[in-house]
Design goal:
By secondary structure, the protein is an all-alpha fold. The chain has one domain. 74% of the residues lie in helices and 0% in strands. Helix 5 packs across helix 6, helix 7 packs across helix 9 and helix 8 runs antiparallel to helix 9. The radius of gyration is 18 Å and the shape is globular. The chain starts with a helix and ends in a 12-residue tail after the last helix.
Length: 270
């Protein structure tokens, strides 16, 4: 098997791993909305696998998949195989690919450490603590407030891009010349709409932390779900968004099977 084919297969495992994690996040959040309890983010969801039968194997497979997904996204950002840099939108998409690649490398590391039992399973939302930590680091340095505002605005732009995907529901990368079935487009729509809400809230948290110079105001996915739960009719609102995140997991599983993946193989994999 050629290196490009291997990377494509590993990237597909990455889509499947992402799907599993989002299904777990959505399921736990729906349960919390109905019964109360502790919310979980990406790393928290991975932690729940550690104590399950075959959990170490699942975590190892997830880690491998996240690495493949990260390499694919970083390769897209660097080599631009689809020639997206012709306009500002394309440049923004490439930047998004780079951020996605780095994020999935972090998830790969977390899954690998759990698989090798080098880290204890973390409950709740470790991402919230990470957001507070790097926000505090930024605020301690000159220009940190401006940096955080820029990061917050970037999150809002990502939220807008997710909302646009939900609205257009083209998903041309699925199925080649045959449009994706209507039910698949609706699954994708709901998933991307839920992600748009989450990214918008995270962006607002970061901007609020910057303007108030208070790192404790920053937060990740877990904090976003908590804010939804705290609103009037919060249990219903959080359940809707959580179900959307679960559907995004299902959509990721569909992508794992049917998405067209164009790979420009990096030199070190040839």
């Amino acid at each position: 098997m050629r290196s490009g084919d291997r990377l494509t297969q590993i990237a597909r495992i990455g889509f499947a791993a992402r799907g599993l994690v989002y299904i777990l996040i959505g399921w736990f959040a729906i349960d919390v909305a109905a019964n109360g309890g502790q919310l979980k983010d990406n790393q928290g969801a991975l932690g729940t696998l550690a104590g399950t039968p075959m959990g170490q194997i699942l975590l190892a497979v997830c880690s491998l998949g996240f690495v493949g997904y990260a390499i694919w996204r970083l390769t897209e950002a660097i080599t631009d195989p689809e020639n997206r840099s012709r306009d500002l939108k394309g440049k923004f998409e490439r930047a998004g690919y780079a951020v996605s690649g780095i994020t999935h490398l972090v998830l790969a590391t977390a899954a690998a450490r759990l698989a090798l039992r080098q880290a204890s399973a973390q409950q709740g939302s470790p991402g919230d603590k990470s957001a507070e930590s790097w926000s505090a680091w930024a605020l301690e340095h000159p220009g940190g407030v401006v940096l955080l505002i820029i990061v917050g605005v970037l999150f809002l732009l990502v939220a807008g891009a997710q909302a646009l995907k939900a609205y257009k529901a083209r998903f041309d990368e699925l199925g080649g010349d045959v449009p994706a079935p209507a039910y698949v487009r609706w699954i994708g729509r709901c998933g991307y709409a839920a992600r748009a809400v989450i990214f918008a809230l995270i962006g607002w948290f970061v901007i609020t932390a910057a303007l108030n110079q208070d790192a404790d105001r920053a937060g990740g996915l877990g904090e976003a779900l908590k804010q939804l739960r705290a609103q009037e009719q919060g249990a219903l609102v959080m359940s809707i968004v959580a179900f959307g995140l679960l559907l995004f997991g299902v959509f990721s599983l569909i992508e794992a099977r049917y998405r067209r993946i164009r790979v420009a193989t990096p030199d070190f994999l040839r």
